Amino acid sequence: IADFGLSRHFLSEEQYYLSNGGRIPVKWTAPEALQFNKYSSKSDVWSYGIVLWEIWSIGIPPYGNWCNDKVIKEVCENNYRLPAPSGVPNYIYKLMLDCWNFDKNKRPSFSQIKFSLRKDDDQILGKNHSAIVERVRSLTFPSNKQEVDSFENNISF
Predict the structure, then answer these.
(1) For position 119, what pLDDT does the model report?
(2) Is the dihedral of CA 43, 26, 19, 101 positive or negative?
(3) What residues does 25 pair with on adjacent strands?
(4) How many folded domains does the chain comprise?
(5) Which string of DSSP letters, residue by residue, matches 86-142?
(6) Among residues 74, 101, 140, 152, which one has the fewest Cβ atoms lying within 10 Å of its Cβ?
(7) Predicted local distance difference test score (pLDDT) of residue 75
(8) How far apart are CA 127 and CA 144, in angstroms?
(9) Which CATH number covers residue 132?
(10) 121 pLDDT exceeds 80?
């Protein structure tokens, strides 16, 4: 998960922060990694929470157009967390928030995440999960920056 951001082609180099000669994807990186360059499976859990948010927001970039400095300040100093994506079940948003706990020791392990996601669809997605699935299937995805901007402004459930 942590390297996922590094393997993607981004529309802008501004999504990375140069640290010790290497670039890191700030918007996907845990506070302890940003502040103290400390990486662990728990910092990967933070990144997983961001990827989960991207999935449920149908690919909208996390933190919108915030610059890296603003993300670092808001997340690390002001305890800001991304809002629930439109239509996300409470159970899934709570999992995201658990992944984004400032105290890495209070974040779930990947084993705990896997176990929590083994519930049936009705428990995880709620009784209207078929409507969510149909909405996702009906989407057409953007292929260039202009379409991405338009896509982000027209997502709703």
Answers:
(1) 73
(2) negative
(3) 16
(4) 1
(5) TT--HHHHHHHHHHT-SSGGGSPPHHHHHHHTTS-HHHHH-TTHHHHHHHHHT----
(6) 140
(7) 98
(8) 35
(9) 1.10.510.10
(10) no
